[in-house]
Amino acid sequence: THFGFKTVDKNDKEKLVKGVFSSVASKYDLMNDTMSFGVHRLWKHHFINRLDAGMRPGASRPLDFLDVAGGTGDIAFGLLDHAETKYNDRLSTMTVADINSDMLTEGEARFQNTRWNDGSDRVKFMVQNGETLEQIPDNSKDVYTIAFGIRNFTDIQAGLDQAYRVLRPGGIFACLEFSHVDNPLINYAYQAYSFSMLPLMGQLIANDRDSYQYLVESIRNFPPQEEFKGMIEKAGFFVPDNGYENLTFGVAAIHIGVKL
Ligand code: SAM
Known about the structure:
By secondary structure, this protein is an alpha/beta fold. It is built from nine helices and seven strands.
């Protein structure tokens, strides 16, 4: 193994991941922008529009959202904004869960300046391992989102099983994650870039080579699209025909599952 990360004991991965995200929490946006040339913002925007979630006029009750590995709140605030702007939904609730309290603290600090900080208690932040979600009851959520989080799980299948458990029947699982480029030429360029340039940029911009190196490794080790789709089905979800969508040649992908 090149950098030692693959040799890490499974039980130590959690600690390693904690360390990585604690060290990047405050420069998290900078890191994302650097890595993806800002494209992650477009991907997130597309993910939120594709989900198109919100309480429809005439619906009997608001929705309960859960954003896991929600870190700094990007996806959570984006979903709430979409629901309100498009459907005038000011009632649906949002729980942001992340294993790392430093990332959540960033998210909570950002939350203070949003319009959802209205004393209504609609938005909650919870330190929670996505592999167990012990504070989230069975069948209690309508939409489970996870963006750039699940590849950091020690046990991805356990995370998917938990997603299935906490969703109500009819609930939607939606994941945005780095994935695999299948065009060999583009993949060649992408690998060359990510393998050599990213850790260097991490060093120069954030003075943090190791965290960037971890990111490159974690992306490599994440299962390819079809395999990940199979894991979602194994958790019990129905995956529709268009159950995954490649973004930017598969550099990232959206996976969807429905709890029937
Ligand atoms: N979703 C946010 C976004 O798209 O900007 C944050 C993504 S960040 C790359 C990954 C997040 O996953 C970190 O905040 C990290 O703490 C969290 N994470 C890693 N392992 C986790 C786990 N087992 N359970 C919950 N969150 C986890």
